[in-house]
Write a structure and sequence with these properties.
Blueprint lengths: L29 H9 L37 H23 L6 H33 L9
Helix pairs in contact: 1-3, 2-3
The chain binds zinc ion (ZN).
The site of zinc ion has 9 residues, from loops.
């Protein structure tokens, strides 16, 4: 090839230069960081809560000022939550269609309410874990002019 010795286009390095600066946050081990996120605590210090409400993330950690609000969790938490919860649901569906399990209308309602509750809890835990992973990887959301 006739390319110069110092030729390094952006797409040959990952992450592309200048897109994801290492933050230096969440220096502890992966299990500790993700575990804190699952428990809804700051992945960096494990002291302050990540969430300000159900799924709203604090802009910065109230204890260590880690930039929790800049971590782009986007669509990953719902995907992870559905992946886990729907596998449990599939078990009930298999039993139902095999004829082993026939819930009454009341029990079906209870199971549906439990499914919704489990989805909500799993979503929050997955979002905490994803924020922990993003914080450790330093994958900060790009903010234009900021
Ligand atoms: Zn913190």
């Amino acid at each position: 090839m006739n390319k110069p010795q110092d030729y390094q286009p952006d797409f040959e390095s990952w992450p592309p230069a200048g897109t994801h600066a290492k933050t230096g946050w969440a220096a502890d081990s992966w299990p500790a960081t993700i575990g804190r996120g699952i428990m809804g605590r700051c992945p960096n210090c494990g002291t302050a809560p990540i969430f300000d409400g159900y799924l709203k993330v604090h802009k910065r950690c109230l204890h260590c000022a880690a930039p929790l609000g800049d971590m782009p969790s986007d669509d990953a938490p719902p995907y992870i939550a559905m992946l886990i919860v729907l596998h449990v649901l599939a078990l009930f569906l298999v039993f139902f269609y095999r004829g082993d399990y026939h819930p009454g209308i009341l029990m079906a309602g209870v199971l549906l309410a439990m499914l919704a509750l489990v989805c909500m809890v799993a979503l929050r835990m997955a979002k905490g874990a994803v924020i922990g992973i993003m914080l450790k990887l330093g994958m900060k959301r790009e903010v234009p002019n900021g």
